[in-house]
Design a protein that fits this description.
The protein is of the alpha/beta class. Helix 6 runs parallel beside helix 7 and helix 6 packs parallel to helix 10. The N and C termini lie far apart (53 Å).
């Protein structure tokens, strides 16, 4: 059984200030929770009898576990359609190591606002073996429930760092790639397997301050070239195209 106080605590984690206060976030559903549990011990798990029976081996380090009915789970859930398990996970205390960026490809997000876009970008990075995502201080919170759900467990494998993005780009001293409407066709440009790919805000693109630090300006061309098409691509879609082209060159 899940207490009213516990439900209140879980519901509070929908708000960023309480996630910061408790250093915790909520993950829901068998797929997502199953992805996270091997990497981190949950602070709390509420699950149906059936889920607990099937996943007992994953719960060895859980601090507290409640067997609940689907009705109880519905009262605690942050989702419109609750699933068979809800877990409160600790926010990992990761420190950015600039040296770790030097021999790899990373993604930087400059003011991406939509949590759904952010979650999808993390999935893309996970798929393409990109292990570090740098976020400007104006980027959406990666532990927002919508982001957590949409990233589908990528949080366990991709390290997300909030930072002074211009400062980090300067300090890293790596090639910095960014997408611009006046950039060079990405399919004709030489691409490296080390560096930082910057993706900008949904409406305004890459900020002027960060744009000045981009050493390689890229364009994702429409098709046919110069034809009348939609004005721009969704930032998550654009990230997928760019990352796929970088990785294709390494094959």
């Amino acid at each position: 059984m899940i207490s009213k106080a516990r439900i209140k605590w879980i519901k509070s984690l929908e708000m960023r200030k309480y996630r910061v206060l408790h250093n915790a976030f909520v993950a829901e559903g068998p797929k997502l929770v199953g992805e996270l549990l091997p990497y981190s011990a949950p602070l709390y798990v509420a699950a149906t009898k059936e889920w607990l029976a099937d996943n007992a081996r994953l719960l060895g380090k859980a601090k507290e576990v409640d067997e609940v009915s689907r009705e109880e789970l519905e009262r605690a859930s942050l989702l419109r359609t609750p699933q068979s398990v809800l877990a409160v996970m600790p926010i990992p205390g990761r420190q950015l190591d600039i040296a770790a960026l030097c021999n790899s490809l990373s993604v930087a997000l400059d003011g991406v606002q939509d949590p759904g876009n952010l979650g999808t970008i993390l999935r893309i990075c996970d798929w393409f073996g990109i292990h570090h995502v740098l976020c400007s201080e104006g980027t959406a919170d990666v532990y927002n429930p919508k982001c957590v759900q949409s990233c589908m467990g990528a949080l366990a494998r991709v390290e997300v760092h909030y930072c002074n993005l211009p400062e980090v780009l300067r300090e890293a001293g790596l090639p910095v790639f960014g997408t611009f409407l006046d950039g060079t066709d990405i399919y004709a440009e030489e691409l490296s397997q080390t560096g930082i790919i910057v993706m900008g805000n949904e409406g305004n693109g890459i900020s002027d301050e960060v744009g000045k630090l981009v050493s390689r300006r890229l364009l994702i061309p429409n098709y046919p070239k110069d034809s009348l098409t939609t004005e721009s691509l969704n930032v998550a879609v654009a990230t997928g195209i760019v990352c796929a082209e970088f990785r294709r060159r390494s094959l």
